[in-house]
Specification:
Strand content: 15-25%
CATH topology of the largest domain: Glycerol uptake facilitator protein
Shape: elongated
Largest sheet: 10 strands, mixed
Helix content: 40-55%
Strand order of the largest sheet: 3-2-1-4-5-10-9-6-7-8
Number of domains: 5
Radius of gyration: 44 Å
Distance between the termini: 90 Å
Length: 757
């Protein structure tokens, strides 16, 4: 309240009824008289005409007080836009609006005459309530100004002191304290506070400070107002953008109960406040309006849907089960089906509407339902995860454990769309699409599955995603409800307090989540940039190596202690790398990245064959032993290979080779035969891969791993075709086979779940 005094030199007096002109003429003249100002009366008529007799009387009354007066006639109806435009055109310092009682004031507001002015006033606004036309000048010299420290109260005190100076009157500055103990020390503390609030006006000769203990501000003001005061000046309460009570609760109640005329002062808003309010009301104006009956019906529907009922829990259990199975199968189609079945959106919308209406009961009911549904969904997923203990995290699971800013934006848009669809029956069919877009149940299913795998990092990431969706949907939905006309009833301060606290809490949570997601998004971008740099460095070294295959997904990056970059690189090659070759690769990558690098190279053996025409079917030769003819017809029971026999094949014979033993054709007197080992020249070097299929998984799918019993790199579904190679290994008590699919996925799978076609 230390702002320099602003003189009132031009007052705009808009008249909706001619009789109001004479009632407010004295006050308008008194406001500008100390500064030799001017009063401009604005009247709207059906056609251009001379001022009405009542307006002429008001003009003469103002001029009789020695004040200049003018009259403006405009065709049409008086409205807020016209008042604003006229005030800015004539450079008015103040707009004076009056009503004989609070009912007339409320009627003016219902007609929209003042909202567009009061929401963002181009100049100071005075709303006078309780003025009656007397036909004679009114004495204005004794004023009561309750003060509380707000800028509007300071402007009210400023104007009241200016009037008291010119009328040789007095001003009582009242501070109502809720401490009714009457202790002298407390009174002194409040008197010191009042002096601080008055600031430069504390020692004004016409100012009388007063501290009054009372149960409430309204009770204290009413007690003093009836003690010989001509006028009560009130500063409008500082209202938030969402408030429909533009002057505040205390001024409204004083205007209702006071028998003394009341003037409520609302000072010109700052530029930033005007811009925010302008944007808010323009956004409010472009949306369709709902009738009171429509709003009541929507409230009943939301109340019913937010209640804990058997249908809600049945559908939630089914949705959680479908989502969990879809995540384990890595099937987006199944997960989308779970989103369509999930009923959790209705409870969250109940939270948003409960905050907007200030309904504590609806907020408690919706929060209770959402909490129960959340726990139930996690429990169902946990049970399903325990039934499949050997399942690893799939791509669909991993895609829901690292939310970012984009997830927050999607949730905000989905929440707004959901609330709008609930309020507009003709677009209610869009709710299914909203359910798919926001995906509430899948993150909860990921939490349960991650807990069954003892992967706490994945569980925390999924919890963050669900919290993001929950807060964003409730906040955006509540904003749409506000814009469509939902608000606490006027005069119910407790409900308005719930609305303000709820909005403040939602904004705080949104800001905290947005900050956290922004940090995670920046980290993810850093990881992507780092991965690309590592991939480029590794690729530059291996691209010249013959028969080596490398993909970006084959590089696993881990930050070790001391900033060491730990790399695990998986390549596919028909040959193994020597230690020196791996060391050269590590040095080259470290040099290119200029970082300390720890390297682990995993080589998956591969076999690549040239195109082959199908061979002609030929009978397979078998080993036969033909004894040499001798003097006896019975050969020796023991056949001993001659030590001088020379085989025509190499010492290492492949499994597909066949041998034929041919006895010595020369007759001899001995009973022993000497066979000769001969290798056939049609031996095959490598077994041919076989076409196979996944079977025996009971439709649970089959995980493809980077190494036997190693990291999961993909998944196969029951009945999927694949190619089975001859490579076999045993690990963790399982036999593992090397397979590949048509889309390029290759790795180790449990051999018991694949079969040759």
């Amino acid at each position: 309240m230390t702002e320099q005094s602003r003189a009132v030199r031009r007052v705009l007096l808009p008249i909706s009824h001619p009789d109001e002109a004479a009632a407010l003429a004295d006050l308008a003249a008194a406001l500008v008289a100390p500064h030799q100002g001017e009063v401009v009366i604005l009247q709207c008529v059906n056609a251009a005409a001379e001022p009405s007799p009542a307006v002429v009387l008001a003009l003469n009354q103002i001029r009789a007080a020695g004040v200049a007066a003018d009259h403006l006639s405009r065709p049409g109806k008086l409205g807020g836009a016209l008042i604003r435009q006229t005030a800015m055109k004539i450079h008015a310092d103040l707009i004076l609006w009056g009503a004989p009682d609070i009912e007339s004031w409320a009627e003016s507001r219902r007609k929209g005459l003042l909202d567009s002015v009061l929401e963002s006033p181009p100049c100071d606004v005075l709303a006078a309530v309780g003025w009656q036309s007397s036909g004679a000048p009114m004495g204005l010299s004794r004023f009561l100004v309750p003060v509380s420290g707000g800028p509007n109260a300071g402007r009210a005190l400023e104007i009241a002191l200016d009037l008291a100076e010119s009328a040789n009157g007095s001003v009582t500055a009242l501070l109502v304290c809720r401490d009714q103990s009457g202790a002298e020390q407390n009174i002194q503390e409040h008197e010191a506070r009042l002096r601080g609030l008055l600031g430069p006006w504390c020692d004004h000769p016409r100012l009388q400070p007063l501290v009054l203990p009372a149960t409430s501000p309204v009770q204290g003001i009413m007690k003093v107002a009836g003690q010989d005061h001509d006028l009560v000046w009130l500063g409008a309460s500082q209202a938030a953008v969402i408030d429909s009570e533009l002057f505040g609760e205390v001024p409204r109640r004083v205007a209702e109960e006071s028998r003394t005329p009341v003037v409520v002062v609302k000072r010109r808003a700052r530029l930033s406040s005007r811009l925010v309010r302008w944007a808010w009301w323009r956004l409010f104006g472009i949306l369709p309006t709902l009738s009171p009956d429509d709003r009541r019906e929507i409230q009943r529907d939301v109340y019913r849907l937010a209640r804990s009922r058997p249908d809600f829990f049945v559908m939630l259990v089914l949705s959680a089960a479908i989502a969990s199975l879809g995540l384990l199968q890595n099937s987006p189609a199944v997960i989308i089906g779970a989103m369509l079945v999930a009923p959790l959106m209705s409870a969250i919308m109940g939270l948003g509407l409960g905050v907007v209406l200030g309904g504590a009961e609806l907020v408690r009911r919706a929060a209770k339902t959402a909490l129960r549904g959340t726990g139930l969904a996690v429990g169902v997923a946990l049970v399903i995860g325990l039934l499949y203990p050997d399942m690893g995290p799939t791509e669909e699971i991993l895609g829901r454990v690292r939310p970012g800013v984009l997830d927050l934006l999607v949730a905000l848009a989905s929440g707004a769309a959901g609330a709008y669809a609930i309020c507009r029956r003709d677009v209610s069919t869009s709710l299914a699409g909203v359910a798919v877009a926001v995906a509430l149940v899948p993150p909860l299913a990921v939490v349960g599955l991650a807990l069954s795998m003892a992967r706490w990092d994945l569980a925390l990431g999924a919890v963050l995603l669900f919290a993001t969706n929950l807060i964003a949907i409730a906040s955006a939905g509540g904003l749409v409800f506000l814009l469509l006309g939902f608000a606490p009833p006027s005069g119910q301060a407790a409900r308005w307090a719930i609305l303000r606290r709820g909005v403040a809490s939602e904004l705080t949570l949104l800001a905290a989540i947005a900050l956290l997601l922004l940090v995670l998004t920046v980290q993810d971008r850093s990881l992507v940039t780092e991965r690309r740099a590592v991939y480029g460095a590794v690729l530059a070294q291996v691209q010249d190596m013959p028969e080596v295959s490398l993909r970006e997904s084959d590089i696993e990056i881990v930050r070790g202690a001391g900033g060491v970059l730990e790399l695990q690189i998986t390549v596919r090659s028909p040959r193994q790398f020597t230690y020196d070759a791996v060391l050269d690769l590590q040095r080259a990558v470290a040099t290119r990245l200029q970082r300390e690098v720890s390297l682990k190279l995993v080589v998956i053996p591969t076999t690549e064959l040239d195109p082959l025409l199908p061979p002609t079917h030929t009978p397979t030769a078998t080993n036969t032993i033909t004894p040499s003819p001798g003097p006896t017809s019975t050969p020796s029971p023991t056949v001993t290979a001659s030590p001088t026999a020379t085989p025509t094949a190499e010492a290492s014979v492949t499994p597909s080779m066949t041998a034929t033993q041919t006895p010595d054709p020369t007759a001899t007197e001995t009973a022993s035969a000497t066979p000769t080992v001969t290798a056939t020249p049609t031996a095959t070097a490598t077994p041919t891969p076989m076409a196979g299929v996944v079977q025996g998984t009971e439709y649970a799918g089959l995980m493809v791993r980077q190494a036997p019993a190693g990291k999961v790199i993909g998944g196969l579904y029951e009945g999927q075709s694949l190619t089975i190679y001859h490579l076999r290994q045993v690990a963790d008590g399982w036999e593992w086979a090397w397979v590949s699919t048509q889309d390029g996925l290759a790795g180790w799978v449990a051999a018991r779940f694949v079969a040759v076609r």
